[in-house]
């Protein structure tokens, strides 16, 4: 008998003998960050235990950053994946790109001063990841990118631009290698949105969700 899906568990992968795999975490249970929003069941499988998953996954996203990192439900994030958010940018409008102000803060520096530093670097906005997106090992996502539902990001791909739903992206810079399904099937999947179903309904229809039978998914609704 299968264990039920449980979004409240920090370590969702449990072996048959009851041993939890400590290197696999539900991110929204392992992370509390004011600029991150992560949906249920999205997991990160890193090969070594981490003390701070937020700092590893998005090392330049700070509590005072203007941008957000938003990740949907049921995403699969492999070892070494990183999100480089807008707060990593340097201002490029002057002669030097050196961030002098970062190293000249004092006790008089205010939160508004820090926010102004981020604005000078020409923020590119939020990084948005849809639902059921698979990130291969050591993929990197650059600032301000939107990745559509059902996309696959290949190992070590560098995503520099928006990714259409159900596309496979590979390479550096990342490019769409192929579409996973035809346009009609993609439209149907985006309408069905199985990831928003009640958990019990998802559990009862895992076979349909993991098959290519779009009619079986339609029949559930």
| Overall SS class | alpha/beta
The succession of helices and strands, N to C, reads EHEEHEEEHEEEEEEEEHHHH
Report strand %.
15-25%
CATH superfamily of the largest domain: Hexapeptide repeat proteins
Give the uncertain stretches in residue-range form: none
Rg from alpha-carbon coordinates:
19 Å
**General shape:** globular
Domains counted in the coordinates: how many? Answer: 2
Oligomeric assembly: single chain
What is the helix fraction of residues, given as a range? 10-25%
CATH architecture of the largest domain: 3 Solenoid
Task: Compute the number of strand runs.
Answer: 14
What is the CATH topology assignment of the largest domain?
UDP N-Acetylglucosamine Acyltransferase, domain 1
From the N-terminal CA to the C-terminal CA, the straight-line distance is: 25 Å
Q: Calculate the mean pLDDT score and round it.
A: 94
Strand order of the largest sheet: 1-3-5-8-11-13-14
CATH class of the largest domain: Mainly Beta
Described by strand count, sense and barrel closure, the largest sheet is: 7 strands, mixed
GO molecular function: transferase activity
Keywords: Transferase
Protein name: Acetyltransferase
Pfam families: Hexapep
Q: How is this structure best described in words?
A:
This is Acetyltransferase. Belongs to the transferase hexapeptide repeat family. The protein is of the alpha/beta class. The protein has two domains: 123 residues, 3 Solenoid (UDP N-Acetylglucosamine Acyltransferase, domain 1), CATH 2.160.10.10; 40 residues, no CATH class. 21% of the residues lie in helices and 18% in strands. The strands form three sheets. The chain has a seven-stranded mixed sheet with strand order 1-3-5-8-11-13-14. Strands 2-4-7-10 form a four-stranded parallel sheet, with no helix packed on it. Strand 13 and strand 14 form a beta hairpin. The protein is globular. The model has no long low-confidence stretch (mean pLDDT 94).
């Amino acid at each position: 008998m299968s264990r039920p899906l449980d979004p409240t568990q920090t370590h969702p992968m449990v072996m048959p003998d009851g041993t939890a795999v400590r290197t696999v975490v539900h991110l929204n249970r392992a992370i509390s960050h004011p600029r991150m929003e992560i949906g249920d069941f999205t997991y990160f499988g890193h090969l070594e235990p981490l003390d701070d998953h937020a700092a590893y996954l998005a090392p330049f996203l700070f509590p005072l950053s203007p941008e957000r990192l938003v990740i949907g439900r049921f995403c699969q994030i492999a070892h070494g994946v990183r999100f480089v958010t807008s707060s990593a940018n340097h201002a490029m409008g002057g002669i030097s790109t050196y961030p002098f102000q970062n190293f000249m803060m004092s006790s008089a520096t205010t939160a508004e001063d820090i926010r102004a530093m981020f604005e000078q670097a020409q923020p590119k906005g939020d990084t948005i990841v849809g639902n059921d997106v698979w990130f291969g090992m050591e993929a990197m996502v650059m600032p301000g990118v939107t990745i559509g539902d059902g996309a696959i990001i290949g190992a070590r791909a560098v995503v520099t631009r928006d990714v259409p739903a159900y596309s496979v992206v590979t390479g550096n810079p990342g490019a769409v290698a192929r579409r996973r399904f035809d346009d009609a099937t993609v439209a149907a999947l985006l309408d069905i949105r199985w990831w928003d179903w009640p958990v019990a309904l998802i559990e009862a229809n895992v076979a349909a969700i993991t098959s290519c039978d779009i009619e079986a998914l339609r029949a559930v609704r």
